[in-house]
């Protein structure tokens, strides 16, 4: 497995070795040692699986309590995946790292706790599976707006022939980084935003 750093420290891209033969393919999709050999100790407690059609954008979500680290990958289709640094004390606060994840490249994107996460579906449909380091906590989940000008994510909408993404009602109501001082006033354990 090859591990690549990204534009943001702590956000990693794992490129597992894929073994192809006449039957098909095999790859390892998780090893605890991918983390422990980098001094990262996480306990993955929940796996998720979602399916979305072309143009759907899920996110950008994060939980202000029980902040989740997510190891994400695509098993069908093709998505543009984004992690936004929401850690107030981070030099890359408000910055984002992105990765193209697909059934083709089989890459995994590590989104640490303290990051907002979301993805845009570029294929006709995409199935998205991921491991989380804490449980779902809807009471503290918030949405950062996908088009927040302060973050300035360059979503490949035109590549998918899209003007706008398709958003859930919750995501349409997302907050903007510079209009949410109340959100950003509470420190979470570990200096995370909240
Ligand atoms: C996330 C989640 C959702 N749900 C239920 C709650 C709703 O009734 C339904 C759909 O939830 P939601 O619209 O929040 O699903 P997504 O928009 O895919 O949310 C996810 O989107 C981005 C990409 C993320 O990184 C998060 O994992 C998560 O926020 O599933 C659960 O029961 N457990 C869960 O862990």
Automatic annotation (TrEMBL):
Q: Name one GO molecular function term.
A: dTDP-4-dehydrorhamnose 3,5-epimerase activity
Keywords, in A-Z order: Isomerase
Does the record's keyword annotation contain Isomerase? yes
User: Which EC numbers characterise this protein's activity in its record?
Assistant: 5.1.3.13
| Reactions catalysed according to its record | dTDP-4-dehydro-6-deoxy-alpha-D-glucose = dTDP-4-dehydro-beta-L-rhamnose
* Task performed by this protein: Catalyzes the epimerization of the C3' and C5'positions of dTDP-6-deoxy-D-xylo-4-hexulose, forming dTDP-6-deoxy-L-lyxo-4-hexulose.
What is the name listed in the Swiss-Prot or TrEMBL entry for this protein? dTDP-4-dehydrorhamnose 3,5-epimerase
Q: Which organism is it from?
A: Pseudoteredinibacter isoporae
């Amino acid at each position: 497995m090859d591990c690549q750093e990204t534009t943001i420290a702590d956000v990693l891209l794992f490129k597992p070795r894929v073994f192809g033969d006449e039957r098909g393919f095999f790859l390892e999709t998780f090893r605890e040692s991918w983390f422990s050999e980098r001094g990262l100790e996480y306990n993955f407690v929940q796996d998720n699986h979602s399916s979305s059609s072309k143009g759907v954008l899920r996110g950008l979500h994060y939980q202000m309590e029980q902040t989740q680290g997510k190891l994400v990958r695509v098993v069908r289709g093709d998505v543009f995946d984004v992690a936004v640094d929401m850690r107030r004390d981070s030099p890359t606060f408000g910055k984002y790292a992105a990765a193209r994840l697909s059934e083709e490249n089989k890459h995994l994107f590590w989104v640490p706790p303290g990051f907002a996460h979301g993805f845009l579906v570029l294929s006709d449909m995409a199935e998205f599976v991921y491991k989380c380091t804490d449980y779902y906590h809807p009471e503290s989940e918030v949405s950062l707006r996908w088009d927040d000008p302060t973050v300035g994510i360059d979503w490949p909408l035109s590549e998918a022939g899209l003007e706008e993404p398709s958003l859930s009602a919750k995501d349409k109501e997302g907050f903007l980084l510079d209009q949410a001082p109340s959100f950003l006033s509470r420190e979470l354990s570990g200096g995370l935003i909240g």
